[in-house]
Amino acid sequence: MVSAQPAIEQIWDWLKEVADPEVPVLSVVDLGIVRDVQWIAGARQLVITITPTYCGCPAMDAITADMRSMLAKHGIERVEIRQQLSPAWTTDWISGEAKARLLDFGIAPPANRAVDVTEIVPAVVACPRCRSRRTEVLSRFGSTACKALYRCLDCLEPFDVFKQH
Ligand SMILES: [Zn+2]
């Protein structure tokens, strides 16, 4: 008798506990990195398909290691992680709920690329603290390559903006 394989939904829940090392308030699932989770029928092997973020390439090794150790904690040792580069990752894959959490964390979330802006660094970004729209770009690169650094002209606080891509 072999024990039953955990359900795919359960595995998604476990992966939701794996945080992005650069933005710890978001999980790899929130970010839209995990595209697909499947058991190989009869093989007791899990295949996870991921699409790396454009800015997180150095972090991807850490992310896949964290995913493996999370699954190992739940007894899943045979994990194959496949990278899928097309379609390319976009910040539009970050869920609305996750964008709200980013804002609470003090990072202005990326604009919806499909709807508004074509600029990677949007012209008008509301301050995550006081919501003022009087803000200016300090640097097109913030604490990581995927963020820009802005400053609010009302509360004078600098803040990160997650660039849309
Ligand atoms: Zn402000």
- CATH classification, class level of the largest domain: Alpha Beta
Continuous helix count: 3
Biggest sheet strand order reads 4-7-6-5
Kindly report how far apart the N and C termini lie. 48 Å
Give the cofactors and ligands: zinc ion
Fold and architecture overview:
With 165 residues, the protein is an alpha/beta fold. It folds into two domains: 8-83, Fe-S cluster assembly (FSCA) (GMP Synthetase, Chain A, domain 3); 97-162, no CATH class. Helices cover 21% and strands 22% of the residues. It contains three helices and seven strands; from the N terminus they run H-E-E-H-E-H-E-E-E-E. The strands form two sheets. A four-stranded mixed beta sheet has the order 4-7-6-5. A three-stranded mixed beta sheet has the order 1-2-3, with helices on one face. The longest helix has 17 residues, at 57-73. The protein is elongated and about 60 Å long. The chain starts with 7 loop residues before the first helix and ends with a strand. The model has no long low-confidence stretch (mean pLDDT 87). The site of zinc ion (ZN) has 8 residues, from loops.
Question: How would you summarize this macromolecular structure in one to three sentences?
Answer:
The chain has helices at residues 8-15, 57-73, 96-104; strands at residues 34-40, 45-50, 79-83, 107-108, 135-139, 147-152, 158-162. The chain is an alpha/beta fold and 165 residues long.
Which helices and strands appear, and what pairs or packs with what?
Elements: H1 8-15, E1 34-40, E2 45-50, H2 57-73, E3 79-83, H3 96-104, E4 107-108, E5 135-139, E6 147-152, E7 158-162
Parallel strand pairs: 2-3, 4-7
Antiparallel strand pairs: 1-2, 5-6, 6-7
The chain binds zinc ion.
